[in-house]
Automatic annotation (TrEMBL):
EC number: 3.1.4.11
Protein name: Phosphoinositide phospholipase C
PROSITE patterns: C2, PIPLC_X_DOMAIN, PIPLC_Y_DOMAIN
Region span, Disordered: 480-507
Keywords, alphabetical: Calcium, Cytoplasm, Hydrolase, Lipid degradation, Lipid metabolism, Membrane, Metal-binding, Phosphoprotein, Repeat, Transducer
Alphabetized Pfam families for the sequence: C2 (PF00168), EF-hand_10 (PF14788), PI-PLC-X (PF00388), PI-PLC-Y (PF00387)
Function as written in the Swiss-Prot or TrEMBL entry: Hydrolyzes the phosphatidylinositol 4,5-bisphosphate (PIP2) to generate 2 second messenger molecules diacylglycerol (DAG) and inositol 1,4,5-trisphosphate (IP3). DAG mediates the activation of protein kinase C (PKC), while IP3 releases Ca(2+) from intracellular stores. Essential for trophoblast and placental development. May participate in cytokinesis by hydrolyzing PIP2 at the cleavage furrow. Regulates neurite outgrowth through the inhibition of RhoA/Rho kinase signaling.
Domain PI-PLC Y-box: 514-630
A molecular-function term among this protein's GO annotations: phosphatidylinositol-4,5-bisphosphate phospholipase C activity
Species assigned in the record: Mustela putorius furo
Length: 775
């Protein structure tokens, strides 16, 4: 197959190729005899060693951390040499892991007084000297003030460059940085040589408990200088052996034949076996030109093992269909035809009783794709409405500040409409103030009249409402005078006694100014489902507690599905969930409920499901419901979905570089197992798991097959979970990834794991084989 010219340029046996997930040189000491600091080599690979901003960050800065009006403390912050983490000083020294934060966990870096903390407490510092580092997950913002405006700008620019470079890294580069960081830590005397003791320390750091005899044999096989130290090329060889992927080599050799390279037709055969959409010879050639590392091989349209690994570790080799990562669904249907990412008590950062209320909670919700946020509005001092969880010890924030946050952050990541769900406890005067703030702050973004005056009662589409804000609340009946009494839009409770109290004590007048802003989302109680002959009222929205929603699902079934085909329904957690716990949203989605509101501040499997549901369609916060939930005459009932129509078979093969759970205990190694969960209609819900692998979080192997029968695959979410097995207590969470079944690619795939907070655990992956059979 190979021409003589290609054969002559292939490596000799004594020059083994480095696997794709390892950079060309992984030795501690640079070959040019320059700086022997491995972190600077890592930055050099990022192309940032000569960047003035990054160099200044490496030197460190004394920045003032601001937490309150009186708590302003100067602390040293310094970029670590790996370019991936920042070390910071604490007043009381803690464990090493408590003194760093990672660049990949940063959600945003804001200049000036662009956080709630700096707006409230940063008045003594000019905006030009201030910056805010906002993190993914629950970690609090870091509000900082530099000594000069230029120093603040160096950190703003430097972090932006590091984040951009990190986002552009391939999986191979990420793994290279990851292993270099551990090499640097394991080299205890920083002499760029690795003793066997240091190698053993490295192995424990990367989550593998290797037998001493085997580890020493591997060490000696690489110790060509026979001096009980590995350096330069010897370290490179040791890492090459350590990071070997036998399961990928086996797959590669199955298709490549004796010459150990893949031609474009051979790669095409692999793609066809993968059931890859659009598998053509031209596509195979494109993959070779994209992922092959060897230029000579690329010129001859051949793919080596390195290129094959690069491809399988790329987004094109991931379980999530790349075509589904952008907006690919029809966005021109009525709002009621979409699942809409929704938050409950959005202002809270913690519990429902004594937690902190913050505008930052809205910023974080929008950063997670949320499109419906809640505002609990109460009478405030000085004529200004406030937002908090009424009759509790939660702190209070101004309604005006929340509306400004909506204006500034609602459309940063998604252009599609935002719904403000108002729970209104204010009197007429402050309701008028609310209406004034909404109009003046949001301006033209606020929807104040129907878009289609010919059909004002029809719900518009997300496409028609791009960049617009809708108000959900009570509306005065058209035929009633301005003095007409009407129930407030407080969320309904289930118990009859509470309803009576609410009817007696919570009857309020609705301000005509606020009523005028409610156009397409008129809050209405749903006590019973209307019989079919009654014409639908698309602009009415019902808010149901999870308990009432479950009752309707159980008792009304198909009637509830039909109701949700043309009207919006919002579901919220029971008030008894004082710790801000969540319910499973899947049951509500099964019946077509669009606005399934969760406590975004509380991580857990429920929020994993929410993130998985809205992972697709560009993470824009809108996902088109399956056809069976959109048709007005649908016969679908989630309680009776019919016979199995799909078989999902997942072979769990291996995992790579799982995170160490207890970084402060060197001898603590995970015993990983993998659980695959299917969340869908009740008949489809199932979970199956592998055995655990003892003391190996670095490259555990399973080779176990898990199979599932599905009746409503179009509603199913698949959740991959890795846990650390414990025989005497509940397993510890390691990582997970959730996605819709319809976005799951078949064949050999890598699953890139996420933390509890949804942050990347790169380079941690699962390697699986997926098959979906529909019948």
């Amino acid at each position: 197959m190979l021409c003589g010219r290609w054969r002559s340029c292939r490596r000799r046996p004594e020059e083994p190729s480095v696997p794709a997930q390892v950079a060309t040189s992984v030795a501690l000491a640079p070959p040019d005899g320059g700086s022997r600091r491995p972190g600077l080599r890592a930055l050099k690979k990022m192309g940032l060693t000569e960047d003035e901003d990054v160099r200044a960050m490496l030197q460190g800065s004394r920045l003032c951390k601001i937490r309150s009006r009186t708590w302003h403390k100067e602390r040293l912050y310094r970029l670590q040499e790996d370019g991936l983490s920042v070390w910071f000083q604490r007043r009381i020294p803690r464990a090493p892991s408590q003194h760093i934060f990672f660049v990949q966990h940063i959600e945003a870096v804001r200049e000036g007084h662009q956080s709630e903390g700096l707006r409230r407490f940063g008045g003594a510092f000019p905006p030009a000297r201030c910056l805010t580092i906002a993190f993914k997950g629950r970690r609090k913002n870091l509000d900082l003030a530099a000594a000069t405006a230029e120093e603040a700008q160096r950190w703003v620019r430097g972090l932006a460059k590091l984040r951009a470079r990190l986002d552009a890294m391939s999986q191979r580069e990420r793994l290279d940085h990851w292993i270099h960081a551990y090499l640097h830590r394991a080299d205890s005397d920083q002499d760029s040589k690795m003793s066997f003791k240091e190698i053993k320390s490295l192995l424990r750091m990367v989550n593998v408990d290797m037998n001493d005899m085997y580890a020493y044999r591997l060490f000696k096989e690489c110790d060509h200088s026979n001096n009980e130290r590995l350096e330069g090329a010897e370290i490179e060889e040791f890492l090459r052996r350590l990071l070997k992927r036998p399961e990928l080599e086996e797959i590669f050799h199955r298709y490549s034949g004796e010459d150990r390279v893949l031609s474009a037709p051979e790669l095409l055969e692999f793609l066809e076996d993968q059931r890859e959409d659009g598998a053509t010879l031209a596509h195979a050639q494109k993959l070779i030109h994209t992922y092959e590392l060897n230029e000579t091989a690329k010129q001859h349209e051949l793919m080596t093992l390195d290129g094959f690994m690069m491809y399988l570790l790329s987004p094109e080799g991931a379980a999530l269909d790349p075509a589904h990562t952008c907006v690919f669904q029809d966005m021109g249907q009525p709002l009621s035809h979409y699942f809409i990412s929704s938050s409950h008590n959005t202002y809270l950062t913690d519990s429902q009783i004594g937690g902190l209320s913050s505008t930052e909670a809205y910023v974080r919700a929008f950063a997670q794709g949320c499109r419906c946020v809640e505002l609990d509005c109460w009478e405030g001092p000085g004529g200004e409405p406030i937002i908090y969880h009424g009759h509790t010890l939660t702190s209070k924030i101004l309604f005006r500040d929340v509306v400004q946050t909506v204006r500034d952050h609602a459309f940063t990541l998604s252009p599609y409409p935002v719904i403000l769900s108002l729970e209104n406890h204010c009197g007429l005067e402050q309701q008028a103030v609310m209406a004034h703030h909404l109009r003046t702050i949001l301006g033209d973004a606020l929807v104040t009249q129907g878009l289609d005056m010919q059909n004002p009662e029809e719900l518009p589409s997300p496409e028609q409402l791009k960049g617009r804000v809708l108000v959900k609340g009570k509306k005065l009946p058209a035929a009633r005078s301005e003095d007409g009494r009407i129930l407030s839009d407080q969320e309904e409770e289930e118990e009859e006694e509470e309803e009576e109290v609410e009817a007696a004590e919570q009857r309020r007048r609705i301000s005509p100014e606020l009523s005028a802003l409610v156009v397409y989302c008129c809050a209405t109680r749903l006590r019973t489902l209307r019989p079919n002959p009654v014409p639908p009222q698309p602009c009415q929205v019902s808010s149901l507690s999870e308990r009432k929603a479950k009752k309707l699902i159980r008792e009304a079934g198909n009637s509830f599905v039909r109701h949700n085909a043309h009207q919006l329904t919002r579901v919220y957690p029971l008030g008894l969930r004082m710790n801000s716990a969540n319910y499973s949203p899947q049951e509500m989605w099964n019946s077509g409920c669009q606005l399934v509101a969760l406590n975004f501040q509380t991580p857990g499997y429920e929020m994993d499901l929410n993130a998985g549901r809205f992972l697709i369609n560009g993470q824009c916060g809108y996902v088109l419901k399956p056809a069976c939930l959109r048709q007005p005459d649908t016969t679908f009932d989630p309680e009776c979905p019919g016979p199995p129509r799909t078989t999902l078979t997942i072979q769990v093969l291996t995992a790579q570089q799982l995170p160490k759970l207890n970084t402060e205990k060197p001898n603590s190694i995970v015993d990983p197992l993998v659980r695959v969960e299917v969340h869908g209609v009740p008949a489809d819900c199932a979970r199956k798991e592998t055995n655990y692998v003892l003391n190996n979080g670095f490259n555990p192997r399973w080779g176990q097959t898990l199979q599932f029968q599905l009746r409503a695959p179009e509603l199913a979410l698949v959740r991959f979970v890795v846990e650390d097995y414990d025989a005497t207590s509940p397993n510890d969470f390691v990582g997970q990834f959730t996605l819709p079944l319809d976005s799951l690619k078949q064949g050999y795939r890598h699953i890139h794991l996420l933390s509890k907070d949804g942050a990347s655990l790169s380079p941690a992956t699962l390697f699986v084989h997926i098959r979906v059979q529909r019948f």
